[in-house]
Request: fold
Amino acid sequence: MARSRHGRWPAGLAGRALVLALAFLLATAVLGGCAAPGSSEVGGGSEQALNDNIGSEPPTLDPALMTDLTSFQIANSVLEGLTRVGPNGVEPGMAERWDISDDQLTYTFHLRDAVWQNGDPVTAHDFVYAWLRVLNPETAAPYAYQLYYIKNAEAFNAGELKDPGQVGLQALDDKTLRITLETPTPYFLSLTAFPTLMPVHKATVESNPNWAGEAATYIGNGPFKMTEWVHDSHIDLVKSDTYWDNDKVRLQRMHIVMVNEGSTAETMYANGELDSNGNLNPQDIPQLLASGEAKRSPMVSVTSVYFNTRKKPFDDPRVRKAFALALDRKAIVEQVLRGGQRPALAFVPFGIPNPVTGKDFREEGGEYFRDADVETARRLLAEAGYPEGRGFPKVTYLY
Reply:
């Protein structure tokens, strides 16, 4: 069985009054420049409101467990980490300032006076609790490795180290958080804006195992508060009156629907029911781009195919390599996706700078293999015992 995983928004996000690119956060460890939550005016009425479509139900809004961009979008509205990403890069979030040691191994964050949406203060202890919870093996956090840059974090997550006090996380007091890294990590500040590293309200988490599944039990610290979550239908957010920077949040509310059918979503947009739609039919994208109804925004991400390597035929690396080589990526991006994506002939995508040279890492590294190399793929399948594909079992591809 083969499964696809992707960390990306659809190619175009159409907006009304303003064409919006609601890329609140990029997947993996890469953070892209985006407007602060709620910074775009939508509509012409006295109340600034946004009706958006995210396409599907967020699997979870627990920062320790979320891995998808649908969840990330909501998280960036209802939660805030030590930093956030704005148009010019990393900006202060819950931390109003920070100090970095000369050896770049120690980061000391000074938290501002901020509160949770129930009025409790946000403290350095909240971050220590949240990050250790991510690293706790019992949590099984998919993105726990995003904290491996922290001293002893990987060993603790692997169960090799039992004492959480030996992890490089220390709340010096309620407003001071000290982080010690394993090695210098130039992009560590960007990581502190990633949803996995956002704080959680300890009392809420420990009192209700399903705290992150309903609006009534969700306590955030971000610019918006969740007031309603009708599963597989919509999420309603309103501007939080407890957010430290709420004077700069222009939107008063957001109504976020989960319409997976592209044609339905496009009809809703055409009828004025949506201000923005991130779920476009690929065949409509060229026309929407040409008309100006959709705008394409750069996105650093990779779409991958994962194989179950414990079962035949994908337990044979020659078969997996054959599938990888036979795939015509150019045809997929040009004839199927049609959103300006680029064929991925290496795992690190375009758009990531080499910290040493400042040049694009992918441009410097080049391609690892040739796209649509059917001849080599056919040879590898023959070597694996499937000449011309004979005897190869039916494969179910999940997307």
Notes: The domain at 303-398 is CATH 3.10.105.10 (Dipeptide-binding Protein; domain 3). Residues 124-135 form the longest helix (12 residues).
